[in-house]
Design a protein that fits this description.
195 residues; alpha/beta; two-stranded antiparallel sheet
Amino acid sequence: MTEETTAMLTKKGLRASLLARRKQLFESLALDNGLAERFLEMLELARPKSVGLFWPIRSEPGLLSVARDWLKRTGGLIYLPETRPDCMIYRLWHEGAELRKDCAGIPYPQGEEASEPPAMVVAPCVGYAESCRRLGYGGGYFDRYLASYGNQRPLAVGVAFDELRGPEEIFESFDEPLDAVVTERRIILKAKAPL
């Protein structure tokens, strides 16, 4: 078995374990409230004019109302991703927008496609590392989205429950680093985060 195959099996096992734990943690209102408070702090710190968020599924934290309220006060926009077989794009969202399901079965709005990336993009984490690496579901859509912008990429933020930290060794070269990870306890900023 190659080193890459071993890493993938380990990553798959860790992902399953962390997803099960996240489901248990999701039931705690105190954790969810803490995550919403830290996310609001991140918005205040970054002050983005637009945010690419996510429609919560599978025990992911719901942050749309926090972002909506903050952006209403600041005049910003919210975008949600549409996953296509070969890529991911962001579409403008507003409360009450008609939703459809993308190829991954995740609701997305019918709003106009973003002509440039949102100033800040936020992704749920199955797990994370202190170095601001994100473990997702394994499809690679978010990583490829970030990589496609190279040095011009938006501020990338992951959200996770603090307990879902994983080992640094699990991450591979194609796992794009984030600029920050927000948990219910803290905001972890990458050393060179563009803030």
